[in-house]
Amino acid sequence: MRLFFLGLLFTFFSIFTAVSQTSPLQESIKRGSEIYTDFCMQCHLSTGLGQEDIYPPLAKSDYLMTNREASIRGIKFGQQGEMVVNGKTYNNIMSPLGLTDDEVADVMNYITNSWGNTNDKMVTIEEVSKIKK
Amino acid sequence: MKQYLVLLSVILYSYVSYAQPYATKILAEDPVNLNYTAELVIPDLNVPWGMAFLPDGSMLITERTGELYHFKNGMKTSVEGVPDVYVRGQGGLMDIELHPDYPNNGWIYFSYSSPEGEGEGGNTAIMRAKLSDNMLVDKQLLYKAVPNTKKGQHWGSRIEFDNDGYLYFSIGERGEGSYNAQDITRDGGKIYRLKDDGSIPKDNPFITVTNAKKAIFSYGHRNPQGLVKNPETGEIWEHEHGPMGGDEINIIHKGKNYGWQVISYGLNYDGTKFTDITKKEGMEQPVFYWVPSIAPCGMIFVTSDKYPDWKGNLLVCSLKFKYLERLVIEDNKVVKREKLFGDLQGGKFRNVRQGPDGYIYFAVEGKGIYKIIPKNN
């Protein structure tokens, strides 16, 4: 019985530490949400839905979730021309944002883990730094 | 039944997301009869922000990323000596304007995101310089907003002179509307007024207020990217970006408070309200507001004889909808809106100017500078 309580206590303790300790990914997502507010939200909105026919959605976006490298490149250097997102063609210009590599990684981690998007493989500074124009 | 539920949820959803209680009543129409065409006269530009016409008919053009071009005889030449520009978010090298007496004194004024001073990041700066052998010389920093911040938004930028030769410029609240825009001891969210040499006019409204930024002329602005003298009245007209909805046109009066972010016709980007009020005593009402937003950037009053049916109208660039909006004004009220040249397949419409040749020019991102030409020319 005593062993049982001890076990229970241990279990609670483990859960508690797991919850209170935030992972590097969670930290990055948190920083990324601030970058998102300052640099992305005016067009893509806080819902990640974008604006019909003008700014493509990020929420449940097939482009974002299957074109990891191109998405990073777009955020890092800007993006121009036609792109197909969830079957719809967009033709607009996102001019260079002037973000540093760590900020690009953070905002990628945020947008690929928000509004129903999930991404287990964390985007790192190293990965961003290797992506060229 | 299922269809009803779907319909209901769509209605509810659109209401929650995009409910705009103060939708603009006058809608932008397509022109019934457009007597003009737009011709691309300066191609290959990315984000052309500012345009200034030199007396010899050539043009100075700024690119947001920090290049200054001199366009002359069909050739685009890079001008050297541009100061260090902090290209971040919506910022960079922005507006450019000539002194009203440029032929005699040669002064060129421009605004840019500057990393100068203490702290990481940057803030908006106003500089004047002269052009000599394709080089900016005699550079004088006239104003630099503080503190520096790494935020990417709301730099303002537009520069204008009034009939008395005073220099006006706009600086946005740098993403800190809650404490910059209403505080006259802080930079940002303001229209400023200086003498042409950067000194502060003695009759500026807050000259005697302790700790106030003495250059401030009006406050309570969000991000003004349009500033133009009304050629008939001499007053300075301004437009600014609201949040989601609530872009405004204002007439700038000395010492007045334009209300951001206490009053607004716009919503947060998630569709929630950040204020319940649109009016308050002691705060100015706009001449006009856009709901939904068009994201205005750059405006002029048409005075040229080349566009007889547009005379006295405002032309405003829309970043969002990528068109030029024509607004017919009667007694300081907008009575008609029209959308022009929305079919150019370019990016944001960034700026519009009327040249000394009487033609109107506008800048489109990813394309270049267009000239508006009468069809029966």
- Count the beta strands of chain A: 2
CATH C-level of chain A: Mainly Alpha
Major β-sheet strand ordering of chain B:
1-22-21-20-19
Largest interface, counted with CB-CB under 8 A?
Answer: A-B, 18 and 28 residues
Gross CATH architecture of the domain at 45-305 in chain B: 6 Propeller
Classify the beta-strand content of chain A into a percent band: 5-15%
- CA-CA gap between termini of chain A: 64 Å
CATH-level-2 architecture of chain A: Orthogonal Bundle
Give start-end ranges of low-pLDDT stretches of chain A.
none
Domains of chain A (count):
1
Report on this model:
- The complex is a heterodimer of chains A (133) and B (377).
- Chain A is mainly alpha-helical and 133 residues long.
- Chain A has helices spanning 2-20, 24-39, 41-44, 62-66, 68-77, 101-111, 125-130, and strands at 79-85, 88-94.
- Chain A is 53% helix and 11% strand.
- In chain A, helix 2 crosses helix 6.
- The termini of chain A are far apart.
- Chain B has a domain at 45-305: TolB, C-terminal domain (Neuraminidase, 6 Propeller), CATH 2.120.10.
- Chain B has helices spanning 2-18, 102-105, 177-180; strands at residues 28-29, 36-43, 48-53, 59-63, 68-72, 75-79, 93-98, 108-114, 123-132, 135-144, 159-161, 167-171, 190-194, 216-219, 223-229, 236-241, 247-252, 288-290, 296-301, 314-318, 323-330, 333-340, 349-354, 360-364, 368-374.
- In chain B, the strands form 6 sheets. A 5-stranded mixed beta sheet of chain B has the order 1-22-21-20-19, with no helix packed on it. A 4-stranded antiparallel beta sheet of chain B has the order 2-25-24-23, with no helix packed on it. In chain B, strands 3-4-5-6 form a 4-stranded antiparallel beta sheet, with no helix packed on it.
- At the A-B interface, strand 2 of A face loops of B.
Tell me briefly what this model is.
The complex is a heterodimer of chains A (133) and B (377). Chain A is globular. Chain A has a single domain (24-130), classed as Cytochrome Bc1 Complex, Chain D, domain 2 (Orthogonal Bundle).
